[in-house]
Every structure is written in structure tokens, then in C-alpha cells.
Design brief:
The chain has 101 residues and is an all-alpha fold. It has four helices and no strands. The radius of gyration is 32 Å and the shape is flat.
Amino acid sequence: RGSPADMQRLQVGRTVHRCLVRAAAVRAFHATPKTRGSEAGSDEPNGWLFGKDPSKKSESEGWEFPYYVAVGASVLTAVLMQYRPQTSLKVWAYEQAQKEK
């Protein structure tokens, strides 16, 4: 065991830790109105999905076109990789064994 001073420091450290944990838990459960989305000027429910009128055409955002190009290129690459020539040593050896039979 340690000296009385060491034991006292350990007890103080545990008490501080317990207080910090409690404070964090209280903060987590007591959200401010701002974090709950009820701040002034928030959109009221209007019955449309995501609050957007389906009859109005939405503007394209700047990230959409590059995203669609990247996804399309990824899908095309995955499909084309299935049809690439087989050039491994095992495939060559298998074909040579079939020719010799």
C-alpha cells in the first residue's frame, strides 16, 4: 500500500472523476432548446416530405453532379472488371493442362 498522502491523492482523484462524469451525464440529458430544433425561425410542419413542395422543381446542388459521375464510374468499373482477360498463372496452367489432355 502507499503512504497516507498517496491514498488521499487517490481519493481526491476519484472524487474529481466522479464529479466530471456526473456533470457530463447531466449535460447530455438536458439539451438546450437550440439543440432540439425549436429555435425561433424553425420551419413548421407542412405535410410534405422534408418540408419541400413536390410541385416545385428543386435546384441542383453543387455536389450532386460529381457524385453521380463518381458512382456511375464505380459501377461501370465493377462491371467491366468482371469481363477482363484472365492472365493469372493458374489460369494459364489450367488451359495448358486442358490442351494436353
